[in-house]
Amino acid sequence: MNYRHALHSCMFALWRKACNRLDIYLQRFSYVSQIALCLLTAWALFYTVIPLYQKALLDEAIARKEVELKKATAALEKAYMRIKFSVVKDFVFMTGAKCTNLLWRPLPALEPLGKPEPGRSPPFEELFELDVPGCITREAEKFLPLDELRPEDRKLFDENISALNQELPIIRERIKAEYDKVPKRVAGEVNILIEQSRIGSGYRETIHQKLLTLIDIKSIQKQTSEGSGSSRHD
After folding, report:
1. Sign of dihedral through CA atoms 211, 216, 217, 218?
2. Is the pLDDT confidence value at 89 over 70?
C-alpha cells in the first residue's frame, strides 16, 4: 500500500509539474499572440485603412476638380461661341457691303422722280456686273479674324462659302433676266426706273440674306440656353 501510495504521489507531482509548465507556456503564448495581434493590426491599419482613406480623399478632390473643369470648359465653350458669332457676323456685314458695291458706291440721295438723264446707266446695272462669288472668296481669304475659328469650324465655314458661291450665280441669272425684261413690259421711263430699282434692291437684299445663312444663330442660341440652364442648376 505504501508502494502504491508513493507511486501515486510521484505521478501526481509529475502531472502537477507538467500542468505548471503548460500554464507557463500558455501564458507566454498569450503574450506573444497579443504582441502579434498588435503588429497585425498596425500592419492592416498602415496598408489597408490609411490607403483607403487617402484614396477616398483623392477621389473627392478629383470629383471637385472635375466639376470645376466642367464649369470652366462650359464657360470657355460659351465664350468661344460668342467669339465665333462675332467674327462671322462682322465678316457677313463687311462682305455684304463690299460685294454688293454698297460700301464703295453708296446710294445717292433721293431726288424727285423725273426723266432720267441721257446716257445714265440703269440703276443697279453695276451690281449685276459684279463678281459676287469671287468677291466673297477674296474677302474670306483676307479677313484675318476668321483664323480665330477652330479648324473644324473654319472647314465648315469654307464649305458653306463654296456652296453659297455655287448658288449665287443661279440667283443672279434669274433676277438679271427679270431685270432686263422690265423695259419690255413696263411703259414709261419713270416706271421702268422704279421697277428696275425694286428688282435691283431685291437682288442686293437676297445676297445679304444668303450671307446671313453663314451665321449659325441656332447653335449660339442653344449654347447660350444650355449655359444659362447649367448656371441655374449649379
Report:
1. positive
2. yes
For the chain, what is the domain count? 1
This prediction's pTM: 0.65
Which DSSP string corresponds to 139-185? HHHH-GGGGGS-HHHHHHHHHHHHHHHHHHHHHHHHHHHHHHTHHHH
What is the tally of helices (H) and strands (E) in the chain?
Answer: 8, 0
| Residue among 233, 223, 227, 222 nearest 72 (CA) | 227
Q: Which structural domain, as residue segments, surrounds residue 200?
A: 77-233
- Cα 165 to its chain centre, rounded Å, is 27
Predicted pLDDT of residue 84 = 92
Tell me, yes or no, whether 163 lies in a domain.
yes
